[in-house]
Amino acid sequence: MSSLAGEVGGLILENPVMLAAGILGTTGASLRRAAMAGAGAVVTKSVGSIPRDGHPGPTVVPLDIGLINAMGLPNPSYREFQEEIDIGKTGGIPVVASIFGADPDEFASIASGLTADAFELNLSCPHAEKYGAELGRYPEAVQSVTKAVKARVRVPVWVKLTPNTADIVELGLAAQDGGADAVVAINTLKAMAIDIESGYPILGNRFGGLSGPAIKPVAVRCVYDLSSALDIPVIGAGGVSCFVDAIEMIMAGASGVQIGTALQRGYGVFGEIIEGLSAYLERRSMRLSDLRGLAMRRT
Amino acid sequence: MSPKSESPSTLAKSVDATILAVRQETPNVKTLTFDLSLDPKAGQYLMAWIRGLDEIPMGFSGPREITVHEVGQATKALANFEPGRSLGLRGPLGNSFILRGDNILLIGGGVGIAPLTFLGEAAKAQDIDVTSLIGFRSSADVLFKQRLEKLGDLAITTDDGSMGIHGFASAGLKELNLGEYSQIYLCGPEPMMWDILSRSKEHSGKIQVSINRYFKCAVGVCGSCCLDHEGIRVCVEGPVIMADRLLNSEFGKYRRGPSGSRGSCRG
Q: The domain spanning residue A16 has which CATH number?
């Protein structure tokens, strides 16, 4: 396992495979369970400044190729959430707090009100009014939010980017200019499903975000472009379901990978990916750093 | 699938079902029968999509029926569905009760009787002896009395004494020797279940409990239903959980609401 240890976005991790934001991250106990299952770090459910119940159901549409969700940023507010982070910490790995706000000040006040090993700024949720990608699609907003949070905290700050834009690299550069320690790519792709029996959009929110295997090739391309253009690390997320996907992300330039939708198969997915990754490296007598960005060097 | 199984059976997509019949069980409980069966096992649930309003979890009270207690906006809307109206169903979801031995006891309260009745009928079909202890607020709320009487011995409690034994369901425990039963199945309001569990801890290794938490995704990823302190994903690893796993959990103490905020497990 030691071959997988290293630094990812300013954190020292046992392995680069993390729990993604929004997945099994509402309770400290579920974060700890991900840690016990082998995750190198966990990212919490996004928390904001006031409690939100989230969108009405259905909140997910299961598809063969992934999931469409519109949870709607349900959270108990950051004030109530510190306890869950503290319980999550008993898993013995870094806990990254995902936070969202409507402007730089709101982000900064949440970050300064929480104690976590790092922050991930949700500038990319595609289905919550005033939040997420509604700010995160503007490079100026990405930069100013990042800068405001960096000014208030001493721990690493990651920025999770939206793929619902013409040029994700522009957003990544804005995060870098704002002082981000890493970017995370990608959040879900804006999507919709309609029930043909009734004509109703299935999601309570009508539209949501697509995750899972369907978006992996999009995520790989985003990670590749970002890694090529940025000086800060890129963490890959989007449809990673097995160690092969993780290797592909790392070859595209990712320093770490986050797992979300694949958790539908249970927490065992962490062990599968970590073992697969270790065995692959051992078989080829390679180190993780040999894989990172390999695709960029193959010209 | 055992109550401890970690993964969902299959990914259930929404199917369109039509209501064939609506039966008024009590003043605020109705049973809806569908035109199709999702082939559920007793203890499993479905997500009922009331189009334009919400999607809510409902336990099966039979192979092609659910029993709805009108408590909120969505359950009220569902209970007012007329025969011929359609809705989306996602299921069957979650694990199920597992029949063990040849002499079982069902303990239920309120609409929690629904999955137990389904289980009892499946047990009876396999020649398993079925005893039931069911509790309600009042005689007007008594549910599935006839269905359960057909299965075997039945004891009823009412909080106000208007039928059967006066008191909570636990008042009926005195009449029973829990040691006699090969397996005990429990479903009802959380304070009632906790009351029963705390009085029968020595039997917790043979009590299967169907519990309720805030389900949103129902596919085990969103985390809203996770149960402290193990982090059990109730929507896929439950809703049936062995009592010995519940004794040191949040069960009976608190539960999380839609925001993830901790609140009372009453009501």
A: 3.20.20.70
